[in-house]
């Protein structure tokens, strides 16, 4: 049975109705609860993430690395895009949701960031121009079905310059109760089941989309890296736990450089 792939529709829904919660699923970022203080904290987390990521790149891959032309895949409202724009010559933000892109544009315009290009996503990145020396994607691939995500991963690597660095976060394993695991399977595989769960259990509209949480096989991602001359990598493992579900995720740092055999 094929997965019901409503990921694109879901993200346009969140982009239109609850964009900040769609990016970071904490109660304080719901549209009805958002305050100036929570908005400030939201964007500060993006600034801190970029600082931490670049520090890790320089420590583990390239001490002299400096992002010049960057791409943020799944840019949402610009949480990571704007810190990158402050240090890069040009930044491209890519997102499947036009509403998210509109909010990102408003946020960039408010900060007078004129070096940001925003592009609607597709699986081949057909709307993206040129290549980059830094590509980032955080809290994005887990919401994309694995087969699609692997193809996008390939296309992102193809956009990296020689010596360029990519940073991509994925979930690689989830531990859940039987009920939660089976329920997630049914909501993604059985037509109309998600709507029934919305009405009966979650007390939401029938058409309210599910935020997919998809796992990736690390051996598949590493084989794609190896096939595309990404000879150096560093993996940072993180464990996120909520209720009876444990999602094991990692961030893969990689550099596109064809090194000589050891």
Task: Kindly describe this structure.
With 262 residues, the protein is an alpha/beta fold. The chain folds into two domains: 14-174 and 215-233, Vaccinia Virus protein VP39 (Rossmann fold, 3-Layer(aba) Sandwich), CATH 3.40.50.150; 175-212, no CATH class. It has nine helices and seven strands. It has helices at residues 7-17, 19-23, 36-60, 81-85, 98-110, 146-158, 178-189, 193-202, 218-227, and strands spanning 69-73, 90-95, 116-120, 132-137, 160-175, 232-242, 245-255. The protein has a seven-stranded mixed β-sheet. Strand 6 and strand 7 form a beta hairpin. Helix 6 packs parallel to helix 9. It is globular, with a radius of gyration of 18 Å.
Write the layout of secondary structure elements.
Blueprint: H1 7-17, H2 19-23, H3 36-60, E1 69-73, H4 81-85, E2 90-95, H5 98-110, E3 116-120, E4 132-137, H6 146-158, E5 160-175, H7 178-189, H8 193-202, H9 218-227, E6 232-242, E7 245-255
Parallel strand pairs: 1-2, 1-4, 2-3, 4-5
Antiparallel strand pairs: 5-7, 6-7
Compact description:
The chain is α/β, with parallel strands linked by helices and 262 residues long. The chain is globular, with a radius of gyration of 18 Å.
Low-confidence stretches: none
* CATH A-level architecture of the largest domain: 3-Layer(aba) Sandwich
Beginning-to-end CA distance, first to last residue: 44 Å
Share of helix, binned: 25-40%
β-sheet strand percentage: 15-25%
The fold-level CATH name of the largest domain is: Rossmann fold
The CATH superfamily label of the largest domain reads: Vaccinia Virus protein VP39
**What's the CATH class label of the largest domain?**
Alpha Beta
Q: How would you describe the shape? A: globular
The number of helical runs is 9
Structural class: alpha/beta
Q: What's the number of extended β-strand segments? A: 7
**Mean pLDDT, rounded to whole units?**
90
Q: How much is the radius of gyration in Å? A: 18 Å
């Amino acid at each position: 049975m094929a997965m019901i792939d409503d990921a694109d529709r879901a993200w346009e829904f969140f982009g239109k109705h609850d964009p900040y919660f769609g990016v970071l699923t904490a109660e304080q970022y719901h549209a009805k609860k958002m305050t100036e203080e929570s908005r400030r904290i939201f964007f500060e987390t993006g600034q801190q993430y970029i600082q931490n990521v670049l520090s890790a790149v320089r420590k583990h891959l390239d001490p002299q690395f400096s992002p010049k032309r960057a791409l943020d895949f799944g840019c949402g409202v610009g949480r990571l895009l704007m810190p990158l724009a402050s240090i890069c010559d040009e930044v491209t933000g890519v997102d499947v949701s036009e509403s998210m892109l509109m909010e990102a544009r408003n946020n960039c315009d408010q900060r007078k960031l004129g070096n940001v290009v925003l592009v609607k996503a597709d699986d081949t990145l057909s709307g993206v121009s040129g290549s980059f020396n830094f590509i980032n994607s955080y809290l994005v691939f887990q919401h994309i079905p694995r087969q699609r995500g692997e193809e996008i991963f390939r296309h992102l690597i193809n956009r990296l310059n020689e010596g360029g660095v990519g940073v991509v976060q994925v979930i690689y394993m989830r531990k859940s109760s039987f009920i939660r695991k089976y329920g997630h399977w049914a909501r993604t595989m059985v037509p109309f089941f998600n709507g029934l769960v919305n009405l009966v259990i979650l007390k939401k509209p029938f058409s309210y989309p599910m935020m997919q949480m998809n796992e990736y096989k690390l051996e598949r991602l590493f084989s794609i890296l190896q096939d595309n001359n990404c000879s150096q990598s560093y993996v940072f493992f993180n464990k996120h736990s909520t209720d009876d579900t444990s999602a094991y995720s990692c961030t893969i740092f990689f550099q596109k450089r064809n090194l000589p055999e050891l």
